[in-house]
Each structure stands twice: as C-alpha cells, then as structure tokens.
Amino acid sequence: MLFILNGLERLNLDFRLAGTELCCDPNEPVPPPAIVVNLLRKYLLPEASIIVTTRPSALRRIPGKYVGRYAEICGFSESNLQKLYFQMRLSQPGCSGEDGGGKSPGSSSGEQDNLVEMLSRNLERHNQIAAACFLPSYCWLVCTTLHFLYFTKTVPPSQTLTGIYTSFLRLNFSGEVLDSTDPTNISMMKYVAKTVGKLAHEGVMSRKTCFSEEDLQQCFEVEMKTESELNLLEVFRSDVFRFFLTPCVQPGKELLGEKKTLAQRVGKELSEVIGKVSEDVVVVLNIISKVLPLRFLPVLLNLLRIFPRYFSRLSGKDRDTIARTMAEEMFKEEDYFNDDVLDQINSSILGVEGPMRHPDEASDDEVFELFPIFMGGILSRRNRAILEQLGCSIKNLAAFEIAKAMKKTVIRNSRKGLPPSELMDYLFFLHEFQNERFTAEAIRSLRTVNLSSVKMTPLKCSVLASVMRTTCHEVEELNLTSCNLDTSSLRTLFPVLLRCKALHLQLNNLGPDACKEIRDLLLHDKCVVSNLRLANNPVGEQGAQFLAEALAGNRSLTHLSLLHTSLGDRGVEVIAQHLAKNQHLQELNLGYNSLTDAAALGLGEGAKKPTTQCSDLYFNDISEEGKRELHTLRMDQDGVRALVFLTAGTDVSDYWSNILSIVHKNLPFWDRERVRQHLALLLQDLESSRRQTANPWRKAKFLRVESEVKKMLGKLRDGS
Fold it and tell me: In this model, does residue 583 exceed pLDDT 90?
C-alpha cells in the first residue's frame, strides 16, 4: 500500500512519545495527527510505502531517522518537458474558443501548433522567460494568457487579464499560511505583499526591473527583528522566495562554450542564491516583472500592498491624486508610438520574428503602460472579492471614490483624439475596469473611433464590442483600415457597425463571405451607415452579388467605395442591375477594377437617376471612345458624372487632386507596373488636352497637374 501525504507543513506533528502515543492497530480510533506520526514511525502498517510532500522549511519537523530519501522538486528538468506541457495544455478541447468562428477544426489545430512552435522558439532564445517557466506554475500562467489572447470570442470576454493573475494568486496561495507554528498566523500572500510587493512597488515607481543584493537586503529588513520575525523571514526565504524572484539570465554574460541544460544552469543559480542573500557577492536578480506576461505579477503585488494599506485611511484629496496618476499613466504621450498592450504581451510570450538582439544592446521592452490598466482591473468587483479571500481587502467606498475622481480626467483626455494603439489601450482599460456606468459615460463622449493599423484579434474585437455596447449612441466614424479583419470579426462587431455613419474597412481580408455579413448589415432596419469604404479588399464577383443585393434594399448609404476590389466586368454589371432600385446612393467609386467600355457604359445607364452624382472609374481599361460616350451620358439631363481621366474636355477636371491623392495613398498596395501604365495614359491625356486649348490659364492648370503626375512616375521609377 502507498500513502501520499500532501502538504505536511499544515499539520503540527509531535514525534515525542509523551506527545503522541504509540499505535500499531489500524482499527484503534486515534486523532489524525497520531495516525500520520505512527505511519512515519513505521509503527503502524510498517510494510506500507509513504510519500510526503512538504515545504522545505517543514523538513525539520520529521526526525531524520524516519526519512529514507529526500528529493527536492525544483521545476522542469529539461526544455523538452516544458514544450510537452505547452503542447498538451494548448491542445485541450475548447482551447480554440467558444465557437468555431467559421474556421475548420484543422485550421484551429494548425493555429495551436503554430503557437506552441513560436513559444518554443522564443524559450530557446529568450533565457529570461525560460528561467521563469522553469516553474510549472508560470507555464500555466503563460498558457492561460495565450488562451485569453487567441481564443476569446464571446462578447463580453469571459474574463479579464487582471482576473487571470488574481486567479493565479488564489490558485497558489488561497488559504496558505506562511508558518502554521507561528502564533501570528500571517497569510502567505500578506507577507509576500509586505516584502516582494514593496520591492515591486519601488520598481514600478522608478521604472526599474533589475535589483541588486543591496535592494534585497532593504526589502527583507524588518522593523523589529524579534525572533518570531526572523523565523518568518527564514521560512519565506526557503519556501517562497524562488516563486517570486528569478536570477537574471542575461545573454552575453555566460561562459562561452559552456553547454549546460536549462535545468543545470537555472538550478545551479537558484541554489547559489537561495539562503545566501546576505553574502558580499552582488547577485543581480530580476523580479518576474522583467518578463511579460510574468512581470505583471509584482505590479499586482504592488497594488495588493498599496490599496489595502492606505485606502481605508485615505482622504478625498489623496484619492484624487491616485485617480489623476492613473489617468496620466493612461495618456502619456511618450507611449503613443508603442504597440498596444495586448500586442506587447503577445510579442513577449511568442517573441518577434527577425534578427536576434546583440547581447550588449539595451532592451526596449520595458513597458509600463500596464500599470494603470492593472490598477483599474484591481478595482473591479470580482478581483476585489478574490483579494478579500487572500486577506487584502479594498472597500467599496474607496473603489467608488477613485472611479468618481478619475472620470473627469479620463473623459477629458480621451476627447483629445488618441493614436490608434493608445485608443485600444484605453478601450482595454475600460474592459478591465468592469464598471459599466463609468464605461458608458466615457464611451458616450467618443464620437470618432480610429483603430487603423491595429491588429484586431478576436479578443480585441470582443473588447471593442463589449465596451461600445454600454451605450447606444451613434458613432460618427469608425476607422478599421488595415486591421486584419475577417468574417468572424465582422460578426463580432455587428452591433457596433450598425451604429456607425462612416465605416472604413479598407485594406482588410474581406472576401465574399465577409460581403455576405456586410449585406446583412446594410439591410438591417437599424443600420445608419452612410459612408462605406471597402477599397483594397478581395471582394470579387461573388462578393459583388451580395453588395448589389444590399444596394437594392438599403436606405442609408450615400457613399460607397469599391476601389481595387477585383470586381471585373461581371461584378460591376451585377451592381449596375441593382443600382436603379437604390434611391439614396450619391457617389460610387469603382476605380482600378479592370472594367472595359461595356461595363462602364452599362453602369452609367444604370445610375441615371437624380440622386447619383458621381461614379469614379479611373484606372480602368476604358478606351478614348468609351470616355467620350460616358461624357455624352453626363451631358444628358439625368446623367451621372463619371471620373475616368484628369481632364474634362479642354479643361482640367475639378476632381484631379482627389484622384491623385487616392492613388498616392494606395501606391504601397497596388501593382506598381500597372499603376505606372495608367499614370502614363493620364499624362498623355493631359498633354493632348493642353495642346487643344488656347486659354493660358487652363494651360497653366494642365502644366501643374502634369508636374504632379510626373513626380509620381519618378517615385515609382526610383522605387520610393
């Protein structure tokens, strides 16, 4: 028979004969501690095998003569075991999200395999993360964070980032007492907050993540060095110290040619550090905060220390100061060009593809934008409940007064117009804060939402949809240009898109399936979209069919851009057939879609109604004869103005600057040789029209436009 006794430090065992009587009869009723002591004495069931787990500090409670073998469990013995853990954890059922999101099981499995591979590569070249993940608890933390980043699809998201870390602390320390033999019975979490939390607080305040032995000595100093306090410190060093601090594994500072496994290298350094903090050798240690996402932990510890200690006795003025500090950290201008926080976390876990950093080069990943986000997250009701269980309480009144004091500053700063990545951080802060009333007041003042070039993952889409649904006000403009959107993204954001007057969806991967979602959007009775830009998306002929159906029944759309969407003649013909049923569209851009004369003329006939004023057809394969016929249609009473060239008869078109501006913006995404050919045709047309006019003013206008076209051709030739 094998007995496994887990967590022996919780029992105060007495091996003295006077304290615990001998017992060899399994049927004799005795207290539980007596059963355990007699099992370990080998007096009760002597032939049984026993495995005992305990903290190192409790080893002395069992006399050595009763122990046959000691083994210290330090962590993963080799990196392959880490990789195996990640593979098993990330391939569990349900890890691909709450729903399929339109993807096949094979694609989800491929994404999981890709995550494991990227994570493994980053562990191989980023020794600091590997050192932290030496402990399986942090491997769990990394995997849970990856689940949150990649597989969150519900609205609102099922959890918050701060919630992951408070749960992490609860899983590891809920109900844990530092030393059960000490009369103070202090919780482990509270002691950690007093020591490592103090060090983390100083690090966050001074933007510092590496600490020397001198810093550690100050951290572990106790005001009254009583015997009890010194004993608690010794227990902390032996049992908990390793969990929160890790040796700084800096590339370039290891012996060349020394090939050690991860376990040998990290295990040796840990054994040298633990218990020898007071030696006169400087040991550079790194708080877990050095490694994203693990660096969040000391920030959290810092908050555990600050909030419970001061909030109950803070004056209103002090709460205003805290609120103002949080708002200032949220809107620091020096952080405006950073990636948003979620992308920073992702890059820190999975690494960034590209050349390795030189060992002597300073790190640029010291990002402290998470500080206000975690502050907001800690104040949420759920996280305060978890902290209450850990012995760190934050009163409801304190949370309410800080939110009230912060509201004015946050709303005022958000109205200034934040860069896209900062705006995403702001939305994420509101999600973490989990205060619906606060969020509603903050979002109500947000009339323009510009998230262009932010990689809108399923999580970010869920956060945006969740935050925006706290109000029902109309949004003047939502810019999601170049955001890696797909069909599932549109599905998640559907309620938000309905309320947007101007909707920018250019440069995304929106094909026919996405156009089906857009059709449902435009046909919805609550849709207010008046300006829709779908330029540079692979819409194609099938997508054009869905958009044509939308045009036939929509009553809000006045401007539609389908520039460079691979429609072809057939796609435009389908749109032209349904266009006559639409009585509201004023402008339609079909430039750069490989249209020929027949399709262009068919569109002109289909758009002959009072509301349609302009149809952009530049950069298509329309001949001179086709251009003249389109011009004739325009001369009719109900004709539509078709912009094909930069000229209008013997004058320059009033819209030449608009056309060249659009071309200039899209040069990085278009086929340069084809653009060069079209620009050459435009230049020939300009020169021909200039020769036909005798008006010197018009000639000057032609020369000006020609110079702009020549500049653009020169840039194309130079490749700039």
Answer: no
Side-chain-side CA neighbours of 628 within 13 Å: the count stands at: 3
Residues forming beta bridges with residue 559, ordered by sequence position: 531, 587
pLDDT higher than 90, residue 394: no
Cα(296)–Cα(166) distance, integer angstroms: 11
Listed residue (180, 192, 171) closest to 58, CA to CA: 180
What's the rounded Cα separation, in Å, for the pair 61 and 193? 27
d(CA 92, CA 112): 10
Query: Under 8 Å CB-to-CB from 720, ≥6 apart: which residues?
Result: none
Report the b/e string of 530-560 with b at 16+ CB within 10 A: bbbbbbbbebbbebbbbbbbbbbebeebbbb
Give pLDDT tens digits for 153-164: 888 888 898 888
Cα-flanking dihedrals φ and ψ of residue 476, to 5°? -65, -40
List, for residues 78-125, the tens digit of each pLDDT value: 778 888 888 888 877 655 544 444 444 455 677 778 888 888 887 776
pTM for this structure? 0.77
Task: Indicate the Cα dihedral angle 140, 145, 149, 150, nearest 10°.
Answer: 0
Residue 663 contacts by C-beta under 8 Å, 6 or more apart in sequence?
619, 675, 679, 712
List pLDDT tens digits, range 458-498. Answer: 999 999 999 999 999 999 999 999 999 999 999 999 999 99
Count other Cβ atoms within 10 Å, centred on residue 230. Answer: 11
Cα angle 202-317-371, degrees, rounded to a multiple of 5: 35
Which burial class, exposed, middle or buried, applies to 128 when counting CB atoms under 10 A from its CB (0-12, 13-18, 19+)?
A: buried
